[in-house]
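Give me a protein, keeping tokens residue-aligned:
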Amino acid sequence: MNEAMGKFIASLRKEKNMTQKDLADQLYVSDRAVSKWERGLNFPDITLLKKLSEVLGVSLTELLNGERMDDVSKEKSDEILEDGVKHYKKQVYKNIIIKVLLIIPIIIFFLFVILVTLSELYYGEIEFGKYHLPFLNVSSTVAKVTTDKFMEAFANEDLDAIKEIYRDKNADGTFINRFEEFYEYYEVVDYEYSYFYHNGYNYTIVYLVTLEVNDIQIEVGLDIAALKNDVVIHSLGYEYGNDVNRDIELVVNDYNLWNAFRNLTV
């Protein structure tokens, strides 16, 4: 069938004084493809049959049979073939859409995995040239769960919970005295997560904490280093430029207040 159809295509092309390249250009294929059709080595794609028959001036049925037919037979056969081609095209497009819809989530998933991996390698940031974009970081998220527990205990003045989660550097339990001293002067009014960073050894989670002392409020930055299962206050500082801290000098100039504030990081 391919050979008869191929000879028919070659004959019709020559009747129209077309080269293989001329025919190929109208169908958006290569002249090699046309050559293979005419030699019976290959069969035109079914999506091209309608266009090919129109270019060559024959019906679909004639093209497939490789010979001309009478008008009555040709008309009935063409209707059946055209319906079949339309149905096939719909199925092809439907299959393509289904495959695309299946592939896209897979691609998105793998991209997400790659980005998360890069984020882990670069400690929560993905580098694109000079740009540093923050991205989901599993390790920092786990670290924040631990520091959130500490912050809840710290805000509620829950010394028992603090004992369980705060690392005792001296292993003598005296660290809890520093918290008791702190609470004699300060009350934790509010706190909120700010950002995180990696210091080369572990993740440090930074919170903005509002403290009340002597009926004034100050805002401080609390850097909490998340260790394996416990935490330690890495640093505690404030900003002079913050309106909340306009009376911070009262703390700095009062030895007891300043000592209780500073000793939390000892």
